[in-house]
Design brief:
This protein is an all-alpha fold. The protein has helices spanning 2-7, 13-33, 37-55, 60-77, 81-103, 120-144, 149-167, 173-193, 199-227.
């Protein structure tokens, strides 16, 4: 019960408004266009997850778990096999690892996870790893006959890296997520244009873009505050 209480402490008014806005946009537009229930629930869980991650709350992993399972199904229907494998093989177990990792690094005063910043060397290594793995994985997805294999590969590889450094509490996650989100929006716009019932998923990723910018600014301010 104490853990549950901590999750609802310290929320600012603008953060609650932002979360409510994201959820309302997804539900409103999705119902208007007629998306599937699974797509809507997946998207709502997804935006709740990323906002709670930005807030530094443990419950982000609860909503992340829901999103991971449903998003794998939505991605399979759209033939984005890289996304399917990413969620089933990597994201699913990482939700549990991330929960316990964050639980050990919570700020007792703010009831939020600590925020950290990588070195320049760390950023360079991170970029090199993403580029190399994207090329290799893109070739594999091409052989499997997937849609937009190299775009799918980049989205998958960068997401793997971003989630790992998110669990390690580094602010750099938001810049990687920003690029991933923009690329993935293109993927789902393509799927929607080709008749896939994926408007909720498309909106979800579009909101992820805005959230990445908002949370990068938020974390930057908080990291500067920690150094004072």
């Amino acid at each position: 019960m104490e853990l549950l209480k901590e999750e609802f402490r310290g929320w600012k008014k603008w953060e609650l408004i932002w979360l409510s806005f994201c959820i309302a946009v997804i539900i409103g537009i999705s119902l208007w266009i007629g998306d599937s229930v699974i797509g809507i629930v997946c998207a709502v869980a997804g935006v709740t997850n990323v906002v709670c991650t930005g807030k530094g709350k443990l419950m982000s992993y609860f909503f992340g778990l829901i999103n991971v399972v449903l998003y794998a199904i939505v991605s399979y229907n759209a033939k984005y096999y890289g996304e399917v494998m990413l969620n089933v093989i990597y994201y699913l177990p990482m939700q549990f690892y991330g929960f316990f990792q964050w639980k050990k690094n919570m700020n007792s005063e703010t009831h939020e996870v600590k925020k950290l910043k990588m070195t320049v060397k760390g950023r360079i290594i991170l970029t090199a790893v993403i580029v190399a793995l994207t090329v290799a994985y893109g070739i594999v997805l091409s052989l499997l006959g997937g849609n937009m294999p190299f775009v799918d590969a980049f989205s998958t590889v960068a997401s793997v890296v971003a989630l790992y450094i998110a669990i390690k509490m580094y602010i750099e996650q938001w810049m990687i997520w920003l690029v991933v989100d923009m690329v993935t929006v293109v993927m789902w716009a393509f799927a929607f244009a080709n008749g896939t019932d994926s408007v909720a998923t498309l909106i979800m990723w579009a909101l992820y873009i805005a959230n990445a910018v908002v949370m990068h600014i938020k974390w930057s301010k908080e990291i500067k505050g920690q150094k004072i």
